[in-house]
Each structure stands twice: as structure tokens, then as C-alpha cells.
Design goal:
Elements (H helix, E strand, L loop, with lengths): L1 E18 L5 E21 L4 E6 L10 H13 L4 E7 L10 H16 L6 H11 L11 E6 L3 E4 L8 E6 L6 H6 L8 H11 L4 H5 L3 E2 L2 H7 L2 H11 L4 E4 L6 E5 L2 H11 L4 E6 L4
Helix pairs in contact: 1-2, 2-3
């Protein structure tokens, strides 16, 4: 049996640059893995069958479960005949913009590639992952990367950024990625500005990082769910240097200098929302 920890992610920035001919949106984003994990236990089965058990139960049909889809797609791609039982212990909230389903799919591909002895390289796994979901390719890369296209183009950022302390806050509702993109107003972004953003995000100065926080999906989601703005205000009032909705939401993260301030903010917000103090993953 193979046990894997699949990390969540945040978007330090997410620019939506327009709609593509294939119906997807062109994006430019800086994403980083964080210390919030789902746990996958993968065991080979003698029969040609994929069994997926998720706890707590997310109540979706097998064919709609990204872990199941990843396993079946890998079999289809390689022609492998065999099975596996995959148990997923969920800690990453659903429909939060934290990449919970995508990371589970990516680590399923990595785990089965190893257990089944398929010998696929990272590029092949990324191509398979891109068919499952736009965020999946990111999870095959290093801890922090620029993600563009519809999400399939991933470029690791050179240099080792400092660990950052975050408080993740999620209201009691999820947000559909499709709906979030329906509400977006596309923007533009120059190559010069992209380089400036990358430099500031990996800078040791937290104020420079905070100045880069931006999510083009956020305004539309706030119109639909004003509580997102309320959470952002609560985080900054509690000492966060900046706060931003991650991905398509509904989770919001606050950037903090120290654990004391983050813990105070968590104490203030916990009665009403799901909260978790995490660190960014480096290296």
C-alpha cells in the first residue's frame, strides 16, 4: 500500500485575460502549495476494477469523482489491465478554490504510475492531468509556479521564497468554478508587469507580496456572495497584511507576519467559519 499526502494550493494572483476559442478562459496566475493535505491510501487489487472511498463522503457519482476519473484515464492511456482501491481522507474543503479535487487527481496519477510500474514521465502525467482539470498540472511541479493558458502551462519559479503564514477561512457554502468564470470581467497584463509581480511575490518583504494580491474572479463572486468581502475585511482588521479569495472561491486567505496574530484572527472567526492556519510549502 502507498500513502500519499496531497497538498492544497492558493493563488497569490489570478488574472483572467479573455475567453479562448475552445471555451476556456486564458489565465495568468502564481500558485503555491500550502500545508493543508488530503491523505490518499492506494492499494493494488487483483481484479480489473477501480474502487474509490472518500471520507467524509462527498456524495458524487464515481464517474464525477476526479480520483476515479484519473485512475480510469491512466488505464485508458496506458492500456494497463489491473485495479486499485483508493481511500481518500479529505481535509481540504470542497469548492473552496484550494485545488482539493485537482491535487487528489494528480497524486492518484503519481501513485498509480508508481504502484503499477508504468514508468510514465512527468510530462506524460501532466498531459493526462490536463484532461481531468485545469488545476491538475500544477500539482506535478515544484511548490510555486506561474500557471497560464487554461492552466495547462506551468513554469516553476526560480529562487526559493520564504515560508509565508496564512489563515484560510471558508464560509459555509461552496463556489462553482464554472459560475465564477461566468461572472468575470477579463483584464489585460503586460509582460513587464508579470515580471514585477513574480519578483515581489518571492521578495522577503511581505508588504511587496501583499501589494500583488489580486483575483479577477473575486469581484463577481463578491456580488453573488458579499460575505467574501466581509471575511476579507475581518482578516485585515485582525492584522492580516492582505487578504484574497483563492481561485474561484469560496475560501479566503489572510497573510500574517506571525502566528500570534493569525491565532487571534482564527479565534475571532472560528465560531462562524471553517478556519485553518497553514504555511506555504517551499522547495
Amino acid at each position: 500500500m502507498l500513502v500519499l499526502r496531497a497538498p492544497a494550493k492558493i493563488n497569490w494572483c489570478l488574472y483572467v485575460l479573455g475567453k479562448r476559442p475552445d471555451g476556456y478562459h486564458e489565465i495568468w496566475s502564481v500558485m503555491q502549495k500550502i500545508s493543508l493535505y488530503d491523505t490518499l491510501q492506494i492499494k493494488i487489487l487483483d481484479k480489473d476494477q477501480i474502487s474509490v472511498v472518500v471520507e467524509p463522503d462527498i456524495e458524487v457519482k464515481p464517474e464525477e469523482n476526479l480520483v476515479y476519473r484519473a485512475a480510469e484515464l491512466l488505464k485508458e492511456y496506458t492500456g494497463f489491465k489491473g485495479g486499485a482501491r483508493i481511500y481518500v481522507k479529505k481535509e481540504i474543503p470542497l469548492q473552496a478554490g484550494l485545488g482539493g479535487g485537482s491535487t487528489d487527481a494528480a497524486y492518484t496519477l503519481m501513485g498509480l504510475n508508481r504502484l503499477w510500474g508504468l514508468g510514465l514521465g512527468r510530462a506524460e502525467l501532466i498531459n493526462i492531468g490536463a484532461e481531468i482539470g485545469s488545476d491538475v498540472p500544477f500539482f506535478f511541479t515544484d511548490s510555486i509556479a506561474v500557471v497560464s493558458g487554461r492552466g495547462e502551462t506551468v513554469e516553476p519559479i526560480k529562487g526559493k521564497p520564504e515560508k509565508r503564514l496564512l489563515l484560510i477561512v471558508k464560509p459555509g457554502f461552496g463556489m462553482s468554478t464554472k459560475r465564477a468564470y461566468q461572472l468575470v470581467k477579463p483584464t489585460s497584463l503586460s509582460d513587464k508587469r508579470k515580471l514585477e509581480i513574480i519578483e515581489k511575490i518571492i521578495d522577503k518583504d511581505l508588504q511587496n507580496l501583499a501589494a500583488c494580491l489580486r483575483n479577477d474572479l473575486e469581484p463577481g463572486v463578491i456580488e453573488l456572495h458579499p460575505v467574501i468581502k466581509e471575511i476579507k475585511i475581518a482578516l485585515t482588521e485582525a492584522g492580516a497584511l492582505g487578504a484574497l479569495m483563492s481561485g474561484s472561491g469560496s475560501a479566503v486567505f489572510g497573510l500574517f507576519r506571525d502566528h500570534v496574530d493569525a491565532a487571534k484572527a482564527m479565534e475571532k472567526l472560528t465560531p462562524e467559519y471553517w478556519c485553518k492556519i497553514v504555511e506555504t510549502i517551499v522547495g
